[in-house]
Specification:
Layout (H helix, E strand, L loop, with lengths): L34 H4 L1 H12 L2 H15 L2 E2 L9 E2 L3 H12 L3 E6 L4 H13 L3 E6 L29 H10 L4 E7 L3 H8 L4 E6 L9 H5 L11
Parallel strand pairs: 3-4, 3-5, 5-6
Antiparallel strand pairs: 1-2
Helix pairs in contact: 3-4, 6-7
The chain binds iron/sulfur cluster.
Iron/sulfur cluster binds next to helix 1.
């Protein structure tokens, strides 16, 4: 990747209204670094990747169908659309559509109560659930070269989170889909690198905001304005 390329995409700061953009309508507006206009080759490649792989096409089709089924009031028009399904329901419905039978649950030990509920919900929908806690293997943090002052509770034994082991165990368990629940920043990165099965994320870790990191973003001009300093 050429990091000096001035035309790298910046869709997040696209200056046009969503409904006026070229990624929404054929005669739409676009900035000079618009990837819809500049990356037509990659766009075709992405479609070919899907069309040449039955499994990927099935994933893409079912994701889009699941997305469409997430709303009611369609017959009344776009303004009346109402979302009706929480993510956990979307996950099990998507897994059913894909024909998955065995699900993996990679959870943070801090969310063990939630993991128990999720496991039982998924089982009640007819899935087998293999679940692995982040502290699996009980490897001391010293193995990572951490000093006492870098532990959560200096002076005591602390097992490291081991997302690679979580992944390897779920790989060995031949899960059809792995669900991440509350893994830390970076631990999720490692898990995703090693998982052989497709993954989805039920929740991410945010110790301060009850695992709702967007609360800081929604309140960026008020209680979380200090983040901008
Ligand atoms: S694809 Fe183009 S028009 Fe769409 S958001 Fe990105 S820059 Fe804007």
């Amino acid at each position: 990747m050429n990091k000096d390329n001035k035309l790298f995409p910046t869709c997040a700061s696209c200056p046009f209204r969503w409904t006026d953009r070229i990624c929404r309508k054929p005669d739409g507006k676009y900035p000079k670094n618009c990837p819809t206009v500049l990356k037509k080759d990659l766009c075709s490649e992405s479609l070919q990747l899907l069309k040449n792989n039955e499994e990927l096409l099935k994933l893409a089709r079912n994701s889009a169908i699941q997305e469409g089924e997430g709303y009611t009031n369609k017959e009344k028009g776009y303004e009346f659309l109402r979302p009706i399904k929480p993510r956990i329901q979307e996950i099990w419905e998507f897994a059913e559509k894909m024909g998955y039978k065995r699900l993996g649950l990679a959870f943070c030990v801090g969310l063990r109560k939630e993991a128990k509920v999720v496991e039982s919900l998924l089982k009640s929908k007819g899935f087998e659930v293999a679940s692995v806690s982040c502290k699996v293997g009980r490897i001391p943090k010293e193995e990572l070269g951490l000093g006492e002052e870098q532990k959560i509770a200096p002076g005591s034994f602390e097992p490291m989170c081991n997302p690679i082991l979580q992944s390897l165990i779920l790989n060995e368990s031949k899960t059809d889909l792995n669900i991440l629940l509350g893994l830390c920043v970076g631990h999720d990165t490692l898990f995703l690198k090693f998982s052989e099965s497709p993954c989805t994320i039920l929740a991410v870790k945010d110790r301060v905001l009850g695992h709702n990191p967007l609360a800081a973003i929604y309140n960026i001009d008020s209680y979380f304005r200090w983040l901008k300093k």
